[in-house]
Design goal:
Blueprint lengths: L1 H8 L4 E6 L13 E7 L2 H6 L5 E4 L12 E7 L8 H11 E10 L6 H8 L2 H6 L1
Parallel strand pairs: 1-2, 1-4, 2-3, 4-5
Length: 127
């Protein structure tokens, strides 16, 4: 994943949205980035010293201008969102032309995937 990002943006400074950012950044990038993190959990945001902007907001209601981000990263979040199609449309509008959207979902055939689908978010945090 990191290689794709480096190749796409050729090590120029990029604006990143970590949507539903949680407690840690999952990607190791050797390039200049500005990270905006959005999460409804203040405790998660408090652990994110790498965020340039930390917003305690619901990812479904937060608003950004169009063409704001080069990269939007959303990991293990959409499976918890009612109306995820609407959120994907918002992601598309927030991306700059030639921007990159990275989505991660749990594999439904693993124990982790089962737990993720069948339990509230707070269970994932303690696991």
């Amino acid at each position: 994943m990191e290689q794709i990002i480096h190749e796409r943006f050729e090590n120029r400074h990029i604006e990143v949205l970590d949507a539903g950012c949680g407690r840690k950044w999952q990607i190791k990038l050797q390039m200049p980035i500005t990270i905006t993190g959005v999460d409804a959990d203040q405790a998660a945001l408090d652990k994110r010293e790498d965020l340039d902007v930390a917003l305690k907001e619901d990812i479904q209601t937060v608003d950004f201008p169009s063409n704001r981000f080069d990269l939007i990263y959303c990991s293990y979040v959409l499976e918890h969102v009612n109306g995820a199609e609407d959120l994907l449309g918002r992601f598309k509008s927030w991306l700059k032309p030639n921007g990159l959207l990275i989505l991660r979902f749990p594999d439904k055939y693993t124990v982790f995937g089962f737990i993720t689908r069948k339990t509230p978010h707070w269970v994932h945090v303690i696991c």
